[in-house]
Amino acid sequence: MGAMAMQGKTVLITGANSGIGKVAASTLAGMGATVILACRRPDAAEAAMAEIRQQHPEASLAFVQIDLASLASVRRAAAEVMAKHPSIDVLINNAGLANMKRELSADGFEMTFAVNHLGPFLLTNLLLPALRAAKGRVITVASGAHVAGKMHWDNLQLERGYFVLRSYAQSKLANILFTKALAARVAADGIHANCLHPGAVSTNIWPERNWLEKTFSKVLRWFLISPKQGARTSIWLASGDVGGKANGSYFENCREKTPSRAARNHDAAERLWDISAKLTGLK
Ligand SMILES: NC(=O)c1ccc[n+]([C@@H]2O[C@H](COP(=O)([O-])OP(=O)(O)OC[C@H]3O[C@@H](n4cnc5c(N)ncnc54)[C@H](OP(=O)(O)O)[C@@H]3O)[C@@H](O)[C@H]2O)c1
Questions:
Q1: What are the boundaries of each domain within the chain?
Q2: What is the position in ligand 1's atom list of the atom closest to the CA of 67?
Q3: Could you read off the pLDDT of 58-91 as tens digits, one per residue?
Q4: E runs forming strands in 118-218
Q5: Shortest CA distance to 240 belongs to which of 87, 27, 64?
Q6: Most C-beta atoms within 10 A of its C-beta, which of 18, 232, 238, 247?
């Protein structure tokens, strides 16, 4: 990919202040794209932008504040983006978390489901006019952890039996089902929606709040790949030919991969879409 391959393109990345998202933001800005960093903490976004400008002094960067755990914040951020950037070439739904304890979002949804699925669901839908204008790409950072997941249809908010892998795996399965349902809806508009597993990456997603987590994380980090390696497939889908051809697919290591059987279930994808539209108040 040439150095200025993304010249004239507008890319919005959620969670662009850290980990995989920050590398993707920097690399795509270095390729000439205007990159909108959509982050919840302005100071963290500022720091990331300063870092990116050191790497790429010519970088064209913008910031929008968004808390994916609040539907009102998502709506406000989407309106701000649409007003300033009526055409978006690439949306990377990258932000995510794995909550150790069951917490609730501003709207009363289980936090991991809210941030990893409902927020991106609403954001993507609200940005569709700008994505249509560019015949853009929607790239959602899912995870190989989806294979451990199932949709708990009668307990989606995991009120019963919460544990971190159960909620995280369900939310990442939801990312793939969302991608499939979205692709079917936007293909006729020339929009391409795909998702990916970045690998097991050394980022802040692995918590280190107590000695047990710190020890676990230290051991784990020997086996993890760098954020630079972890961002490869996101960048490749954003800038390469395949991201503008494939639709509804799941990728790993810049290669298409077949996700779990649960992730290929058409009825589940449609059911999740309907539920998500209701929960987010999407009309
Ligand atoms: N690391 C891995 O091994 C791995 C494996 C598979 C998939 N993934 C996926 O990769 C994506 C990127 O994660 P990462 O590994 O780069 O982790 P990270 O370094 O922790 O970055 C996560 C980003 O998400 C943001 N975020 C969290 N909650 C948010 C909210 N309520 N509103 C807006 N932004 C929020 C974080 O913001 P703050 O800095 O403000 O917290 C941060 O910018 C995630 O979707 C994750 O599930 C990661």
A1: 10-280
A2: 32
A3: 999 999 999 999 999 999 999 999 999 999 999 9
A4: 137-141, 192-197
A5: 27
A6: 238
Global pTM?
0.97
Q: Does domain 10-280 have CATH number 3.40.225.10?
A: no
Measured in residues, the chain has a length of: 283
Single-letter residue type at 137: R
Tens digits of residue pLDDT in 206-248: 777 788 888 877 877 778 999 999 999 999 999 999 999 999 9
Residue 120 host element (H or E): helix 119-134
Residue 38 to residues 63, 71, 75, 92: CA-CA distances in angstroms?
6, 14, 13, 10
Q: Where is 236: in which H helix or E strand?
A: helix 232-239
Check residue 86 and report its DSSP letter. S
Q: Is the dihedral of CA 68, 71, 74, 78 positive or negative?
A: positive
Probe residue for ligand 1, chosen from 17, 20, 36, 67 as the CB with the greatest number of ligand atoms within 8 Å: 20
Is 250 part of the annotated catalytic residue set? no
List all residues whose CB is within 6 A of at least one atom of ligand 1: 14-15, 17-21, 39-41, 44, 66-69, 94-97, 115, 141, 143, 197-198, 200-201, 203-205
